[in-house]
Design brief:
Strand content of chain C: over 45%
Helix content of chain C: under 10%
Shape of chain A: globular
Distance between the termini of chain A: 35 Å
Radius of gyration of chain A: 19 Å
Shape of chain C: elongated
Radius of gyration of chain C: 16 Å
Number of domains of chain C: 1
Structural class of chain A: mainly alpha
CATH topology of chain A: Cytochrome Bc1 Complex, Chain D, domain 2
Structural class of chain C: mainly beta
Helix content of chain A: 40-55%
Number of strands of chain C: 7
Oligomer: heterotrimer
CATH architecture of chain C: Sandwich
Number of helices of chain C: 0
Strand content of chain A: 5-15%
CATH superfamily of chain A: Cytochrome c-like domain
Chain lengths: 254, 155, 110
Amino acid sequence: MKKIILASALLGVLAFGGDQFAMSDADRAMYEEMLEHNPADMDIAWGGELFEANIGSEEALAKFLGVKAEELAVYLSGFPRYIEKLGMVASQEQVLQGAMAEAGKKPLALKSKEMAAMGAYVKSLSNGLPVSIDINANEHMKKAYALGDVVFNQQRGGRGLSCMSCHAPAVIGSILRTQPLPDLGSEANKAAATWPAYRMTKSNLTTLQKRFQGCMENALLAVIPMGSPEMNALEVYVTHVAKGKEIAIPGLKR
Amino acid sequence: MQRRSFLKGIMMTGAAAAVVSPSLAFSAEAPKGPNAMDLDTAIKAITGGKSVSASDKVQLKAPEIAENGAVVPVSVTVDSPMSAEDHVKAIHIFATKNSNVRCADVMLTPANGTASFSTRVKLGSSQDVMALVVTSKGEFLSAAQNVKVTIGGCG
Amino acid sequence: MATKSLVKIKPKTYKVGDVVEVSLMVMHPMETGLRKDKESGKLIPAHYINDVKFSFNGTPFTTIKSWESLSTNPVYTISYKVSEAGEIKVAFTDTKGEANENGTKITPKA
């Protein structure tokens, strides 16, 4: 009972259609133009330096992953993947941690600025390619997707919300405090294909998992740690929604 | 148990925050910073009191509604031959209600080829963004656009 | 470490006589002096880029005085009419006196 009341409290702050705050197409075009001068380009350049210092080269990364150097970009476009060496469905950042550890270096923390920049650089190697995640590649991926589905749909926290409460086809496009609720799979959003992204409200480069955490904090869902099986599963789930969309890193978001 | 009540505590503040109107996020009276300067003073410092005329030679582009007051794209283009005899000498950008209205003073030369400048500004509240242009002929031209600043959305 | 920055020319290919866009992006907090530190509650002192100078082969052609109202990680975009091959240099200084320089080559297509 309580849950229902709380969920309708959310509906109270949603405004449907023709909202007075909706931006005009001209406004949107201006924001899109900003992509040309995305401050996160500086992070990507820095990430490239960090990559060289910590991993060495694309060849070294390809070797760690057991793929040919010329296949690296395509391979990377299929993350998260089950990585035998790590014994888990891993994000690219975790692969970078693994590669650093193998080289006898102390891995960068997942939530560090350095890792965000280096991870974004590595993701940008797949720019222009479609998101090619395969959730049926093996049992591990199937399980991760199923877990992601659960996490995405599970009502949690004080207001009994799930990710689905806000990112479901039924409410997508409606407005929450002036922000349209994004359809995580739409052409306009290409969500998983455009993160890491520069967040204008935070003035920094933000990873997809960090973005999830932002939604969790705001919707009062207990925050799931980065790199945990649940978080990776959520990344698998959201990435699958954007399958086939062109990778364009770094994105630029509100 | 401990954890539950902790979450509940967040819920209360969070839910309250969710319903406060956006305007409360910015105090009505902007606090004064070290460079505080109002629009009249800033304009006078440039024109020396000469008159400024609004001109459609000056095109100022800014969103009517800003997704986020911290990053508002502004671009100014002035219709000018940019020749030695006839060019734009300066483009000044003002956020007319910020505590220091000055955003950028851009000094141009004929080598620019086109008189243009674009950047991103912080706006503390809904307000006009204004461009004041100084030409080599000693004219002062201006253009302005109102920008509504909203906040909202999710994290 | 030097302040991170990026200088870009748009479009990528151009000829002598074309007007191109030159942009400078800088990683800089652009502190207004009005913001409080979340932990200490103290005002964070103003700290922003206040001076930018674009020059071509050593000759300045655009100077910008900027203020705390520019966004964090600011972008400055101006026009430049390509006259010959050479180098654009952009020097910028902040209110703490930290001076940096970045640049890019101008290579017009015949």
